[in-house]
Design brief:
With about 180 residues, the chain is α/β, with parallel strands linked by helices. The chain is built from seven helices and five strands.
Length: about 180
């Protein structure tokens, strides 16, 4: 697999849908192909460069724009940037798609019920108990992508099946990019 230039692969979905799990697995596969890869997890980035932001819609959008800025820099320098971020609002994801250009949206789709069952941090329980107001999927919306390049139904597929869907898409995209 070869790639001409960088690429941003954006994993979006509810908390607990499997974004970070898929990011790690895809990162391992791409790194194994000798490609330059960097993973950006929204939870980690928020602690490092977005501590000044809260969880209002405006702050969430700014958080995603900052992550997108870093991903764009990496992409412009030939790196595959893998981003795991709930990124609940479609408009800001579309804004990043336009500004980055080399952008692949992976919709990590699992029902709220499935995400609640996987909730190791207890966030859904806290949100349902009123301790986390504005929690995405409970009392704040998640706007699913309308036309993602890949949709992974992690409530119906194994991790391996989802990763294979992503890799099949990327291999086809890389093959097409090499022919231009």
């Amino acid at each position: 697999m070869s790639l001409l230039g960088g690429l941003t692969i954006w994993f979006t979905g509810l908390s607990g849908a499997g974004k970070t799990t898929l990011n790690r697995a895809v990162s391992e596969r791409l790194t194994g192909c000798g490609l330059s890869v960097e993973s950006l997890d929204a939870d980690v980035v928020r602690k490092a460069i977005c501590r000044d932001l809260g969880f209002s819609k405006e702050d969430r959008d700014e958080n995603i724009r900052r992550i997108g800025y870093v991903a764009n820099l990496l992409t412009r320098h030939g790196v595959i940037a893998l981003v795991s971020a709930i990124s609940p609002y479609r408009a800001v994801r579309d804004e990043l798609r336009s500004s980055i250009g080399d952008f692949v949206e992976i919709y990590v789709n699992a029902s709220v019920e499935t995400c609640e069952l996987r909730d190791v941090k207890g966030l859904y329980r806290k949100a349902r108990g009123g301790e986390l107001p504005g929690f995405t999927g409970i009392d704040d919306p998640y706007e699913p992508p309308l036309h993602p390049e890949v949709e992974c139904r992690t409530d119906r597929e194994t991790v391996e099946e989802s990763v294979e869907k992503i890799m099949t898409y990327l291999e086809a995209r890389f093959a097409t990019a090499g022919k231009k």
